């Protein structure tokens, strides 16, 4: 693949050992699972996050060191696990308010035998039009002809559009699997496009591949991608095991969020206090409220400062309320409540009524 041939950071250490920095997380996750015996006759759902490295030309959304969050599932061969991880990512987009910004593209690469048959047809087609291939595609014709379909060269788009379709080389079982996937997505209310040119950049994929893309980041539009790789564990020395996963690029996701002025959920209340006794009580109050109202956010002021300065910090967090503890509040077993976003008078709520008050004013 291009990643292995052109983008890997490989070097010798002081002992003469050849080392490579990981360009993606799936192979590393599989090796770790093999080393610790996680896959033999077992169903596993794993996740990881961390830095990856590729020797690429740096540009917006594409860096030589970047970060990925990945999900890998082992031991399940049906389309339902593919749909589950796609829906997991879709749920995240909705949570972040990005569902209208990201589009799902899917394709089926079939089995290795079906791809081998298709490659022969594809090579024959491109050889007949060799004079129209750019340098990258001419090289790929000998190494990985499927990657020609992923070319972004405008001069080659008509040639690629008229190329034979992989779907025509799929057998009945692969076609049925892909049809089932599409049915599950439709039933779940997820819009998708069948992109017959979607092949992904790594050779270990089989059957289902997918990408979540956006038009808001220019050429680096893929934010999350994945697919099935049933043969990879066997290639790395383990027993044949069905597997599927995805990875999302953290930097690209952050860029997309920044464009849409996304901000984290704001806390319900910021807890302020005056005096050492009140400070100790405020710590207890914060923990009690977090236990009783786990869906609400509570920020405890840490450090010194006058109430005025604490209120300023409370306002900067975006909290709706400031909860106040001082000598009088402690003595009367009450909590002062200052409304930070509304023109309401400050109130003093008995501690035993505070939870209900916060629920009603959350």
Describe what you observe in this structure.
The protein has 362 residues and is α+β, with helices and mostly antiparallel strands. The protein has two domains: 2-110 and 170-259, Bira Bifunctional Protein, Domain 2 (BirA Bifunctional Protein, domain 2), CATH 3.30.930.10; 269-360, Rossmann fold (3-Layer(aba) Sandwich), CATH 3.40.50.800. Helix content is 38%, strand content 22%. The chain contains 13 helices and 14 strands. The strands form three sheets. Strands 3-4-9-8-7-5-6 form a seven-stranded mixed beta sheet. Strands 11-10-12-13-14 form a five-stranded mixed beta sheet, sandwiched between helices. A two-stranded antiparallel ribbon has the order 1-2. Strand 7 (206-213) and strand 8 (222-228) form a beta hairpin. Helix 3 (79-95) packs parallel to helix 7. The two termini are 53 Å apart.
List keywords for this structure.
362 residues, alpha+beta, BirA Bifunctional Protein, domain 2, Rossmann fold, 2 domains, seven-stranded mixed beta sheet, 14 strands, 22% strand, elongated
Topology:
Elements: H1 2-7, E1 9-12, E2 18-21, H2 26-35, E3 44-53, E4 65-74, H3 79-95, E5 103-108, H4 112-128, H5 135-143, H6 157-161, H7 172-187, E6 193-194, E7 206-213, E8 222-228, H8 232-235, E9 243-249, H9 250-259, E10 269-273, H10 276-292, E11 298-300, H11 307-316, E12 321-325, H12 327-332, E13 334-339, E14 347-350, H13 351-360
Parallel strand pairs: 5-6, 10-11, 10-12
Antiparallel strand pairs: 1-2, 3-4, 4-9, 5-7, 7-8, 8-9, 12-13, 13-14
Helix pairs in contact: 3-7
